[in-house]
From TrEMBL:
<keyword id="KW-0256">Endoplasmic reticulum</keyword>
<keyword id="KW-1009">Hearing</keyword>
<keyword id="KW-0808">Transferase</keyword>
<keyword id="KW-0489">Methyltransferase</keyword>
<protein>
    <recommendedName>
        <fullName>catechol O-methyltransferase</fullName>
        <ecNumber>2.1.1.6</ecNumber>
    </recommendedName>
</protein>
<keyword id="KW-0531">Neurotransmitter degradation</keyword>
<comment type="similarity">
    <text>Belongs to the class I-like SAM-binding methyltransferase superfamily. Cation-dependent O-methyltransferase family.</text>
</comment>
<dbReference type="InterPro" id="IPR002935">
    <property type="entry name" value="SAM_O-MeTrfase"/>
</dbReference>
<dbReference type="InterPro" id="IPR029063">
    <property type="entry name" value="SAM-dependent_MTases_sf"/>
</dbReference>
<keyword id="KW-0949">S-adenosyl-L-methionine</keyword>
<keyword id="KW-0128">Catecholamine metabolism</keyword>
Length: 107
C-alpha cells in the first residue's frame, strides 16, 4: 500500500506516470462531497477505470453529492445501486452509499 497525499485534482492526473497505477479496480470516495463528480470524471478522463471497476461513494445523501448522483444516473457508463443507511453517530439522519460498477458504455 502506498499513501499518496495531495489534492485529488492534482494526484489523479499523475497516478499513471508518477505513481505507476495503470488502473484502479476499486475506488472508495469519502472526502469532500462536492469533489466526487470532478474526481470521478478525472478517473474517466485518465483511463484509470477498467470495465468492471467498483466505485464506492459514502455520504451521498447527507451531506450529499447530488451532482455526482445525477451524473451517474444519466451518463450511461455505470450500473449503480444506492445502499440506504444512516449517519454513524446520528442514526436518525438518513444517508446512503453509492455502489457503482463501471461499464464504460454509453447507453
Amino acid at each position: 500500500v502506498e499513501l499518496i497525499v495531495g489534492p485529488s485534482e492534482e494526484v489523479i492526473p499523475q497516478l499513471k506516470e508518477k505513481h505507476g497505477l495503470l488502473q484502479a479496480d476499486l475506488v472508495f470516495m469519502d472526502h469532500w462531497k462536492r469533489c466526487y463528480l470532478r474526481d470521478l470524471q478525472l478517473l474517466e478522463a485518465h483511463d484509470l477505470l477498467p470495465e468492471g471497476a467498483t466505485i464506492l461513494a459514502d455520504n451521498v445523501i447527507f451531506p450529499g453529492a447530488p451532482q455526482f448522483l445525477q451524473y451517474v444516473k444519466a451518463c450511461g457508463k455505470y450500473q449503480w445501486k444506492l445502499h440506504r443507511t444512516s449517519l454513524q453517530y446520528f442514526r436518525a439522519i438518513r444517508d446512503g452509499m453509492a455502489q457503482l460498477t463501471y461499464t464504460g458504455l454509453k447507453r
